[in-house]
């Protein structure tokens, strides 16, 4: 792993010599400004105006890439480099990075964002795939914590995560780092706009609400910040980007979530409604379900449930708020809702589980199947 304390980010290795010489993509035109997203119910908290440092970031990134001979950005690694230094500065500002902060940067690439972090006074710990470091296999506690403890000047000893992330690993990174409120206080990511909008959506009333939203809202407070147009990247991706921040909750801020093979207790704040045909729907589902833990709702008391291989007979449910549900789980636990399912036959074009008006619960079932 690569702790960086000076302006010397890791550089991409030249690609291995291909059979036919690859042509380097022509340098792109300087990027225009990036703008807030016009989409969805989420409004950007910050609107970034005209970029004074556009040409600086543009020229230094192109120079850096050109200096690497035949380096051709690799699509499989999401190597869409940032050309606009103003975007980097806004990423740093969104995370509130300042003197003495310790930052985990994922994918420093040419180092343009690293420069901005260092300029803000941070100590940066970078993880870059092209020098054999893969964030999805990264062990934060054994590799990063000792570094944080050594470098942190704050008594709280919380680090920050800032990254212009390869779009294809964004969900993996979110799943890996969000439950680490004991290590990180905030995570600010530049992601695909579509993904950022989806992750920041906190409303279970929308059809877009997915299991990942349950996860994100359980462990953090997400906020869509601003849109970054695709023209700010080189090579230019087919989609726009956006910056999203996740304020991580400390473990004390959410109900205890047991790790593997344990009992857990969790707030059912995301299961807020139930329709009369839900039970019927669930019975229909059992034909293809070997093991299922059902989270039930009850107005007054905690309900203990366990996994069962027999069809569910327990009638359930309810109206009104549920204080909590505890579940005894016999299998690894991924999520607060703890619904365990074997693979369910996927319908063509479907999500594996028939849709139902109780969409958050359906989503959770789908997530854990
Ligand atoms: C979108 S580029 C960002 C580069 C640079 N930070 C910038 O803003 O221009 C993503 C970077 O992440 C690196 N990367 C891709 N997959 C990775 C992984 N699994 N772990 C760590 N880094 C990865 C790529 O090599 C690339 O340098």
From TrEMBL:
Recorded source organism is: Leersia perrieri
Which keywords label this protein? Methyltransferase, RNA-binding, rRNA processing, S-adenosyl-L-methionine, Transferase
Record Pfam families = RrnaAD (PF00398)
Database matches in PROSITE patterns: SAM_RNA_A_N6_MT
Keyword check for Protein biosynthesis, yes or no.
no
Keyword RNA-binding on entry = yes
The record lists S-adenosyl-L-methionine as bound by 80, 82, 107, 128, 164
Protein name (Swiss-Prot/TrEMBL): rRNA adenine N(6)-methyltransferase
Cited InterPro entries: KsgA/Erm, rRNA_Ade_methylase_Trfase_N, SAM-dependent_MTases_sf
Instruction: Mark out the compositionally biased spans (Pro residues).
Output: 9-19, 26-41
Domain Ribosomal RNA adenine methylase transferase N-terminal, first and last residues per copy = 87-250
The lineage's top-level taxon is: Eukaryota
What family does this belong to?
Belongs to the class I-like SAM-binding methyltransferase superfamily. rRNA adenine N(6)-methyltransferase family.
């Amino acid at each position: 792993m690569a702790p960086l304390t000076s302006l010397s980010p890791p550089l991409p290795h030249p690609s291995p010599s291909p059979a036919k010489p690859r042509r380097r993509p022509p340098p792109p035109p300087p990027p225009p400004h990036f703008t807030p997203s016009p989409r969805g119910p989420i409004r950007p908290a910050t609107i970034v105006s005209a970029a004074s440092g556009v040409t600086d970031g543009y020229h230094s990134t192109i120079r850096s890439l050109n200096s690497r001979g035949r380096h051709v950005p690799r699509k499989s690694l999401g190597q869409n480099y940032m050309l606009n230094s103003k975007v980097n500065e806004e990423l740093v500002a969104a995370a509130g990075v300042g003197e003495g902060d310790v930052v985990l940067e994922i994918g420093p690439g040419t180092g343009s964002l690293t420069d901005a972090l260092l300029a803000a006074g941070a100590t940066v710990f970078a993880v870059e795939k092209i020098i054999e470091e893969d964030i999805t296999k990264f062990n934060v506690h054994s590799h990063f914590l000792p570094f944080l403890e050594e470098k942190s000047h704050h008594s709280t000893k919380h680090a920050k995560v800032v990254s212009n992330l390869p779009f294809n690993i964004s969900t993996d990174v979110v799943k890996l780092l969000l439950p680490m409120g004991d290590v990180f206080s905030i995570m600010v990511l530049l992601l695909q706009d579509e993904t950022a909008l989806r992750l920041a959506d906190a409303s279970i009333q929308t059809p877009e609400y997915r299991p990942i939203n349950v996860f994100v809202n359980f462990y953090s407070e997400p906020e869509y910040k601003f849109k970054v147009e695709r023209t700010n990247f080189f090579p230019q991706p087919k989609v726009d980007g956006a910056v999203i921040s996740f304020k991580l909750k400390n473990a004390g801020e959410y109900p205890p979530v047991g790790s593997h093979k344990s009992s857990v207790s969790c707030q059912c704040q995301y299961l807020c409604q139930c329709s009369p045909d839900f039970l019927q729907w669930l019975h229909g589902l059992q034909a293809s379900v070997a093991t299922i833990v059902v989270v039930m709702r009850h107005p007054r008391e905690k309900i203990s449930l366990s996994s069962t291989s027999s069809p569910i007979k327990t009638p359930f449910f309810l109206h009104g708020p549920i204080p909590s549900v505890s579940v005894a789980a016999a299998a690894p636990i991924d999520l607060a809702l703890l619904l365990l399912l074997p693979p369910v036959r996927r319908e063509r074009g479907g999500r594996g589980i028939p849709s139902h008006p109780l969409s958050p619960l359906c989503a959770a079932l789908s997530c854990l199947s």
